[in-house]
Amino acid sequence: MLNHIDIDQILFLDIETVPGCYNFSDLSDSLKDLWAKKTRFTQERDNQTPEEIYEKAGIYAEFGKIVCISTCFEYKKEGINKLRVKSFYGDDEKALLSEFGSMLIKHFNGDDKFLCGHNVKEFDAPYLARRMVLHGLELPKMLNTPGKKPWEVNHLDTMELWKFGDYKHFTSLNLLANIFGIPTPKDDISGADVARVYWEENDLKRIKIYCEKDTITVAHLMHKFKNLPLIPNENIEII
Fold first, then answer.
1. Is 141 helix (H, G, I), strand (E, B) or coil?
2. pLDDT tens, position by position, for the chain (239 residues)?
3. Is residue 219 part of a domain?
4. Who's near 17: CB < 8 A, 6+ residues apart?
5. Overall pTM surpassing 0.85 (yes/no)
6. 170 located within any domain
7. I need a surface site. Which of 1, 11, 96, 147 has the fewest CB within 10 A?
8. Is 22 exposed, middle or buried (0-12, 13-18, 19+ CB in 10 A)?
9. Is residue 52 a part of any domain in this protein?
10. Which domain holds residue 172?
11. Distance between CA 110 and CA 154 in Å, rounded?
12. Cα(67)–Cα(50) distance, rounded to whole angstroms?
């Protein structure tokens, strides 16, 4: 599977997002109204008020922000395959996006490079691009996708790859890791906890560790898809 793509040409990533304001009451009156309009179908479906569903604000690029981007790539050193993991995280979203964008432009700008994540096509990549545009940052080639044909976009989505054309259901990264026997350390938080950990505990390092685990799992899943051996923990370098 995917034999035409070399594993060392792929940048794996995952992002963690939170609401731009922790509480619905902190929004301006105009944003409260726009949030209500943006989520009206969800309100009707779940029989909830705009305030009740505000906990989901972090998944919308217009109402959320990125607090962590974790990346990893495979390289060979002295004949040994290794994974190098690097995270961009902090309260200053523009700064972390600028640093991440510079890395993409410098190291992953060629036509032979690929960006890979779980649901990256519908969430991570669009979210990153939208937030970069909002901050007035240059879009790296890897994220500058408007006007491109689908086959011209070098994004690999492990969720989409697993579907093999079946679009009826969502398969979580945790489920795929489990059935493929990919060892994953137990997390002390889940995606649903990220906003609380950020806004109430201000524990960015805890979020970073959680994000890095998912990024490494995505890389291991791609190894399974390509029938390659996993990278042992001692060969995973976190910088």
1. coil
2. 788 889 999 999 999 999 999 999 999 999 999 999 999 999 999 999 999 999 999 999 999 999 999 999 999 988 899 999 999 999 999 999 999 999 999 999 888 999 999 999 999 999 999 999 999 999 999 999 999 998 889 999 999 999 998 877 789 999 999 999 998 766 778 888 999 999 999 999 999 999 999 999 999 999 999 999 999 999 999 99
3. yes
4. 58, 59, 64, 65, 66, 67, 127, 194
5. yes
6. yes
7. 147
8. middle
9. no
10. 7-20+63-238
11. 10
12. 24
Q: What CATH number corresponds to the domain at position 111?
A: 3.30.420.10
Question: How many domains does the chain fold into?
Answer: 1
Q: Could you tell me whether strands 10-19 and 64-77 are parallel, antiparallel, or unpaired per DSSP bridges? A: antiparallel
The structure tokens 């579907």 sit at 163
- Strand-pair category, 80-89 with 64-77: antiparallel
Domain-located, residue 217: yes
Residue written as token pair 């898809």:
225
Written as six digits, the tokens of 25 are 């009451």
β-strands 155-157, 10-19 pairing: unpaired
